[in-house]
Amino acid sequence: MENFELAIIGGGIVGCALFSCAVREGISTVLLEKGDDVASYASKANSGIVHSGYDPIPNSKMAKYNVLGNALYESMCRRLGEKMIKCGTLTVGREKDRLKLEKLLARGKQNGVKGLRIIEKKELFEMEPNLNPEIECALFAPTGAVVSPFGVCIGLVEEGIINGGTILTNFDVVDASKCDGGYQIKSQYKREVNAKFVVNCAGPNASFVNELFGDKVFDLSFVKGEYILLDKSSQGFVHHPIFPLPDEKGKGVLANITVYGNILLGPTAVPCEQSDTKVEIKGVEKIQSSVLKSIRSPNFKQTIKLFAGVRVKAGDDFVVERSSKNKNYYYAVGICSPGLTAAPAIAEEFLAWLKQDGIKTNKIEIKKRKPYVCTRDLNTQELKKLVKQNPSYGKVVCRCESVSEGEILDALSSPLPPTSIAAIKRRVSPTMGRCQGRACIPKIIKIWAEFRRKQKNKN
Ligand SMILES: Cc1cc2nc3c(=O)[nH]c(=O)nc-3n(C[C@H](O)[C@H](O)[C@H](O)COP(=O)(O)OP(=O)(O)OC[C@H]3O[C@@H](n4cnc5c(N)ncnc54)[C@H](O)[C@@H]3O)c2cc1C
């Protein structure tokens, strides 16, 4: 039995953001995650856009947390050493759409979004020469940005761990009960933790977890978003996330950039089951035809990966509440888009409630998280210097993404060590390129085995 002041259930972006906030306040915190790594669900498969906030309905929780979260991202990414491309976003239309764009602009202003403006064809095509020639105007939102969604989650959790927080992965919360001064939470393997305060951020299972605590149950629906990822040789085809006009189904199929240099096309919006991340041929065709309404045809032959993420909805707005039934229990339910953007603000709201409700904080000296070395971003001089200090940074393992043995070893000895090739990929990006790991997976396994052997001998 382990005792904590705070237990957070679910290591998606909301849980990870709260974990880092709480630990930095000196709160004894445990993050309980069902998967073998953080960002196991929606937080690893989305568009990676830090939305400006012109789209959500004014006065909704979505609008509030979107705009506040957007304002927190830059300093958070700087603190974590995570890449953020501050490119702004474009929502494009034809002359007949101008009124709709102006309505979006007005809505954005009402939500408190800064710098929004309608731009005309000449300026627009200077910014994005590969737009569909029929496009005539656009809403430019300069505060929109792009991040690595799983990179941010990993950064937040690593920061929490090096500052004294605890994370238990493979901890599927299946039971909960009240105990002296708090709650007892049990995993599928009968592992138990006690906590005085509990925040439920369990994404697709948030309503189920509420049920375990005898709290409010929500009717959730699931909507799949399929994507096409183009190889890095497509880099420069577009320079911003390019949205069509949003409709009742959502923000539509967009052409987007990634922090890794790829072009990302999608997502679709297909009602689905909770764990359905299959990409259907219908979805691929839908993306290919829809995206052409906004841009000229990209080279679809550069496709290297198809993937899908699932949005969780509990009606038209986010549910972020302090329980009225259970003391010191809080929950985030139905955090669909723009949840990646909103997460830092949702975390701050929870933290404020926890403090109001008397959670114990301590002053701690905050240690800075060390970001991963990325040899492909170094110039020749910098790389030479690094390789002189540590020759393993000079041994290339993944040729497509230029990832060295040193970077793989950094991932293996990181604060939350990976337990799968996919988790290594999410930390230092081998297997992300054109061959999708066909050439480098055997080499990674060999490095991993040798690393484990050395670790065993040390102990
Ligand atoms: C296709 C798509 C595109 C999107 N694009 C964007 C975008 O560009 N910008 C944006 O702002 N937002 C976007 N979103 C929304 C964003 O991805 C989500 O809002 C966000 O990831 C939700 O985070 P979360 O922490 O609430 O939940 P999740 O990421 O779902 O995390 C919940 C975690 O809880 C864990 N868990 C579940 N049950 C249990 C249990 N019983 N015990 C322990 N752990 C449990 C899960 O394993 C999971 O890791 C998009 C979403 C999708 C699907």
Q: What do these coordinates show?
A:
The mean pLDDT is 97. By secondary structure, the chain is of the alpha+beta class. It is globular and about 65 Å long. The two termini are 26 Å apart. Strands 1, 2, 9, 10, 11, 12, 19 and 20 form an eight-stranded mixed β-sheet that branches. Strands 13, 15, 16, 17 and 18 form a five-stranded antiparallel β-sheet that branches. Strands 6-7-5-14 form a four-stranded mixed β-sheet. It folds into three domains: 2-43 and 150-220 and 315-356, FAD/NAD(P)-binding domain (3-Layer(bba) Sandwich), CATH 3.50.50.60; 89-142 and 221-311, D-Amino Acid Oxidase, subunit A, domain 2 (D-Amino Acid Oxidase, Chain A, domain 2), CATH 3.30.9; 375-458, no CATH class. The protein has helices at 13-24, 61-80, 98-111, 121-127, 149-162, 206-212, 281-291, 339-356, 380-389, 405-412, 421-428, 441-458, and strands at 2-9, 29-32, 49-50, 84-85, 89-93, 117-120, 137-141, 145-147, 166-168, 173-179, 182-187, 192-200, 221-230, 242-243, 254-257, 263-266, 270-271, 303-313, 319-322, 329-333, 396-398, 403-404. 32% of the residues lie in helices and 23% in strands. 48% of the residues are buried. α1 (13-24) runs parallel beside α8 (339-356) and α10 (405-412) packs across α12. The structure holds flavin-adenine dinucleotide. Flavin-adenine dinucleotide binds next to α1, β18 and α8.
